[in-house]
């Protein structure tokens, strides 16, 4: 794998006006399109940007004005749809939730930003990876409310405290930042990974749910929670601030002590 | 080309699509096609709540909810549909709870409820606690819960399949829908899905505007496809501007903040909504609040260095309320504006948010081909549809309700229709139009850049067709949009490949945006009155004599620059006569 650093200034006509206060940053992007490329490469782009810009703005600048072939997913652009998880300067982040000012060093000298696809999932094209293995693991933990017996006519009653018990893990947007930051997942793709366990946790600790045992059996498997080495990468990576490692620990404890 | 055969094909996997799929999938062989992944859909961005007269925390009933919806919609609401929605709201919320949705709870363990704009006790006496919620991520919880239940029921998804056309076959009884044609993003292959019924649930088209709460992917694809088939669109001039978008960015801050007690203030700190809506003040419906904010700015009372926004003051709510009931918007303000709502007021300004209009349907989700007839086998639900339960202005939370009530109804109706009918033969060469469209975009036929045209479209729509409109601004917008359509004929894309060609995708999406922007502007020009979300400075009053009617637009002829024919459809009244709208 060779790393080239050719700087593209664009060939698609005039660029939009540079806003006041813009600085020039170098966006270094890991590129790979198996339709045409034998191996991945690095492309660099010089971009005028504001400190308040999101990394997603920089990617859009490239796609819209410099190189239309640059490929990535995005949708909501404010951190709730989970489409644009990527490795930004070596850590998993959502491109729409990282602002340029958070990436620039204090002196403002370090103006190169590297962007790569999340690790551990096959790359389809540039920053866009195959999400199927990730969603397969999610589906495998029975991520839905399981109940037996007759349904009540009104809502099920749940105390404020019982609702609070699993609040943290309801925030998951399935962006895969956690799972693809996990060193165990990188080497053993059969591991369910943090996101699937987070979503199992969300139901195991829901007082209305009666499927904890089924899910715990699944997570007790060789590819289940015991693979976790408690490196906390997942917790650091979560753009929703979920205490992912803690959730995994709680599932382990539930398995050890056979109660939730 | 690949060929598939299903009973029901659902296009779109947001709230309406997945709610439909849960019903349809248990009754008939169903496929869900989405250009995204289901959990990326913009239902997940909804924040504040979903109204239903559960009366868990205070007296309420569905008749009051019906009335509020009709008055909120400035009497352009079809009253039979509003009544159905308000009545079925209660079961819609309870169904979601039973599916596992983690609602916030009262001290007694019931579903908690909060206040929301325009939702009142006893026909306008005071704000009522009607919105069921899960912090300020109610839409996220709905989207996740519906996806979880789709997993439970084994619903079959075709992710990243971009539907570009539907199949209409001519029969003795007129046209019937027989399938859909999709472009597979991963491979560039065209897929024909033969079906007995097709449900559109493709969401809105907020990306015609620059400042919008909408996702990049909300480009009105479903509405555009239907319109290109010569079928009507309804009430497209009624576009909602949500009062509290983060200033300059358009990111949504829920009305639930005001439901919890937040206050809008102008530069001098005045609670200006007291002047515009003396009874329910900051909790007036969105059209009234958005117009009031725009007036404050126009009249020089805006805040900030350029006096171009107002302030949402949450500081008196306290850190605990913000962190527990409004955590996401608190984080948005901190992340994107570096403003801490606990300590200082947040700069806000109206942001393009929601299409009241769309594909006309009846209360079963069946798509109309004119005022009186449906297209058998074709259904629509959610923001892309117009039932019409929102009339000229949607009340907050009623969209989450709409997708659940009418998503469910469309799913049931589509499956029951499929079970009662045989497949009808597809038209000849069903994929031809899509193949030609894709080939044209990929061919070398000009130098116009998609991003330039889109940027100019969004700029003119923001400047000329947003909260306030006049004959002059709308004519400017129309002129601009038509010029951009002309330039669109000469676009080029750089990516000529087959694999995940999102360059091509954006070009196709822009075509839909241009088409829908023109319909919006043509409708806004023709409607010489102010009603709900459509505010004409040159016609400031509602004109029930001439305009108490839905607009219906038909595309006349082929090609992007074809004419638009405007027709009208009567509003359905049951028991509520139009009154002056005061809050």
TrEMBL record, chain A:
GO terms for biological process: respiratory electron transport chain; tricarboxylic acid cycle. Residues 1-14 have a biased composition (Polar residues). InterPro entries: 2Fe-2S_ferredoxin-like_sf, 4Fe4S_Fe-S-bd, 4Fe4S_Fe_S_CS, Beta-grasp_dom_sf, Helical_ferredxn, SDH/FRD_Iron-Sulfur, Succ_DH/fum_Rdtase_Fe-S, Succ_DH/fum_Rdtase_N. Residues 162-192 form the 4Fe-4S ferredoxin-type domain. PROSITE patterns: 4FE4S_FER_1 (PS00198), 4FE4S_FER_2 (PS51379). Its cofactor is [4Fe-4S] cluster; [3Fe-4S] cluster; [2Fe-2S] cluster. It holds the Pfam family Fer4_8. The keyword Metal-binding applies. It comes from Saccharothrix tamanrassetensis. This is succinate dehydrogenase. Belongs to the succinate dehydrogenase/fumarate reductase iron-sulfur protein family. Its EC number is 1.3.5.1. One of its GO terms (molecular function) is succinate dehydrogenase (quinone) activity. Residues 1-20 are annotated as: Disordered.
TrEMBL record, chain B:
GO terms for cellular component: plasma membrane. It is found in: Membrane. Substrate binds at residues 242, 254, 353, 394. It catalyses: a quinone + succinate = fumarate + a quinol. FAD binds at residues 12-17, 34-49, 221, 383, 399-400. Pathway: Carbohydrate metabolism; tricarboxylic acid cycle; fumarate from succinate (bacterial route): step 1/1. GO terms for biological process: anaerobic respiration; electron transport chain; tricarboxylic acid cycle. The modification Tele-8alpha-FAD histidine is found at residue 42. Keywords: Electron transport, FAD, Flavoprotein, Membrane, Oxidoreductase, Transport, Tricarboxylic acid cycle. Flavinylated by SdhE, about 5% flavinylation occurs in the absence of SdhE. The active site is at 286 (proton acceptor). InterPro entries: FAD-dep_OxRdtase_2_FAD-bd, FAD/NAD-bd_sf, FRD_SDH_FAD_BS, Fum_R/Succ_DH_flav-like_C_sf, Fum_Rdtase/Succ_DH_flav-like_C, SdhA/FrdA/AprA, Succ_DH/fumarate_Rdtase_cat_sf, Succ_DH_flav_su_fwd. GO terms for molecular function: electron transfer activity; flavin adenine dinucleotide binding; steroid dehydrogenase activity, acting on the CH-CH group of donors; succinate dehydrogenase (quinone) activity. It is an enzyme of class 1 (oxidoreductase). Residues 454-583 form the Fumarate reductase/succinate dehydrogenase flavoprotein-like C-terminal domain. Its cofactor is FAD. Its EC number is 1.3.5.1. It is a peripheral membrane protein. Residues 7-400 form the FAD-dependent oxidoreductase 2 FAD-binding domain. Belongs to the FAD-dependent oxidoreductase 2 family. FRD/SDH subfamily. This is Succinate dehydrogenase flavoprotein subunit. The lineage of its organism: Bacteria, Bacillati, Actinomycetota, Actinomycetes, Pseudonocardiales.
């Amino acid at each position: 794998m060779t790393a080239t650093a050719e700087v593209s200034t664009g060939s698609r006509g005039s660029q939009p006006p540079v806003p006041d206060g813009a600085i020039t940053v170098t966006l270094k992007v890991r590129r790979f399109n198996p339709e045409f490329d034998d191996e991945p490469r690095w492309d660099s782009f010089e971009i005028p940007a504001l400190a308040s810009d999101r990394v997603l703005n920089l990617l859009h600048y490239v796609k819209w004005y410099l190189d239309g072939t640059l490929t990535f997913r995005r949708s909501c652009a404010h951190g709730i749809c989970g489409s644009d998880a990527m490795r930004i300067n070596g850590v998993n982040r959502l491109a729409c939730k990282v602002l340029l000012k958070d990436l620039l060093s204090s002196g403002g000298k370090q103006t190169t930003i590297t962007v790569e696809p999340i690790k551990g999932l096959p790359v389809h094209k540039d920053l866009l990876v195959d999400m199927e293995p990730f969603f397969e693991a999610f589906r495998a933990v029975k991520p839905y409310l399981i109940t037996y017996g007759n349904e009540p006519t009104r809502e099920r009653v749940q105390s404020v405290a019982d609702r609070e018990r699993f609040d943290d893990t309801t925030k998951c947007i399935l962006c895969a930042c956690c799972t693809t930051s996990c060193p165990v997942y990188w080497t053993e793709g059969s591991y369910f990974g943090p996101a699937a366990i987070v979503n199992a946790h969300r139901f195991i600790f829901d007082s209305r749910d009666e499927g904890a045992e089924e899910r715990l059996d699944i997570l007790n498997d060789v590819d289940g929670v015991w693979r976790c080495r408690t490196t906390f990468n997942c917790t650091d990576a979560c753009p929703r601030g979920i205490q992912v490692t803690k959730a995994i620990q709680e599932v382990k404890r539930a398995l050890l002590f056979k109660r939730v | 080309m690949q060929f598939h055969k299903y009973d029901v094909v659902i296009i779109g996997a947001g709230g309406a699509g997945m709610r439909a799929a849960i019903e349809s999938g248990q009754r008939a062989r169903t496929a869900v096609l989405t250009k995204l992944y289901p959990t990326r859909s913009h239902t997940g961005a909804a924040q504040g709540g979903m109204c239903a007269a559960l009366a868990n925390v205070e007296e309420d009933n569905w008749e009051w909810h019906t009335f509020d919806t009709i008055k909120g919609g400035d009497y352009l609401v079809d009253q039979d549909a509003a009544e159905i929605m308000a009545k079925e709201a209660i079961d819609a919320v309870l169904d979601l709870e039973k599916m596992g949705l983690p609602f916030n709870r009262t001290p007694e363990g019931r579903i908690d409820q909060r206040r929301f704009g325009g939702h009142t006790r006893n026909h306008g006496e005071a704000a009522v606690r009607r919105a069921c919620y899960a912090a300020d991520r109610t839409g996220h919880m709905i989207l996740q819960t519906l996806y979880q239940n789709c997993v439970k029921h084994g619903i079959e998804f075709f992710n990243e399949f971009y539907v570009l056309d539907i199949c209409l076959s001519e029969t003795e009884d007129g046209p019937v829908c027989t399938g859909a044609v999709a472009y597979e993003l991963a491979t560039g292959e065209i897929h024909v899905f033969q079906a007995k019924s097709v449900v559109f649930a493709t969401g809105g088209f907020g990306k015609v505007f620059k400042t919008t709460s909408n996702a990049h992917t909300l480009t009105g694809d479903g509405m555009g496809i239907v319109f290109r088939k010569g079928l009507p669109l309804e009430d497209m001039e009624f576009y909602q501007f949500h009062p509290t978008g983060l200033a300059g960015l358009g990111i949504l801050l829920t009305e639930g903040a005001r439901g919890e007690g937040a206050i809008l203030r102008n530069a001098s700190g005045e609670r200006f909504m007291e002047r515009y809506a003396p009874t329910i003040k900051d909790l007036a419906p969105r059209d009234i609040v958005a117009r009031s904010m725009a007036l404050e700015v126009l009249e020089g009372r805006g805040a900030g260095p350029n006096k171009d926004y107002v302030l949402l003051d949450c500081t008196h709510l306290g850190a605990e309320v913000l962190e527990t009931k409004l955590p996401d918007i608190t984080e948005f303000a901190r992340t994107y504006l570096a403003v801490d709502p606990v300590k200082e007021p947040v700069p806000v300004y109206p942001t393009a948010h929601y299409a009241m209009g769309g594909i006309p349907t009846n209360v079963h989700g069946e798509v109309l081909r004119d005022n009186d007839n449906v297209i058998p086998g074709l259904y629509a639900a959610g923001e892309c549809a117009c039932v019409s339960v929102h009339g000229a202005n949607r009340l907050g939370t009623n969209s989450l309700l709409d997708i659940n009530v009418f998503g469910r109804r469309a799913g049931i109706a589509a499956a029951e229709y499929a079970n009662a009918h045989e497949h009808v033969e597809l038209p000849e060469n069903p994929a031809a139009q899509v193949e030609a469209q894709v080939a044209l975009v990929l061919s070398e036929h000009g130098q116009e850049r998609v991003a330039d045209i889109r940027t100019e479209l969004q700029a003119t729509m923001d400047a000329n067709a947003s909260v306030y409109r006049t004959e002059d601004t709308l004519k400017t917008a129309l002129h601009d949009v038509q010029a951009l359509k002309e330039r669109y004929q000469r676009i080029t894309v750089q990516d000529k490949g087959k694999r995940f060609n999102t360059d091509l995708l954006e070009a196709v999406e822009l075509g839909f945006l241009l088409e829908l922007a023109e319909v919006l502007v043509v409708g806004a020009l023709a409607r010489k009155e102010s009603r709900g979300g459509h505010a004409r400075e040159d016609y400031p009053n509602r004109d029930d004599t001439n305009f108490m009617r839905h607009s219906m637009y038909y595309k006349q002829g082929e090609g992007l620059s074809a004419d638009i024919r405007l027709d009208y459809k009567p509003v359905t009244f049951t028991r509520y006569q139009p009154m002056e709208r005061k809050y």
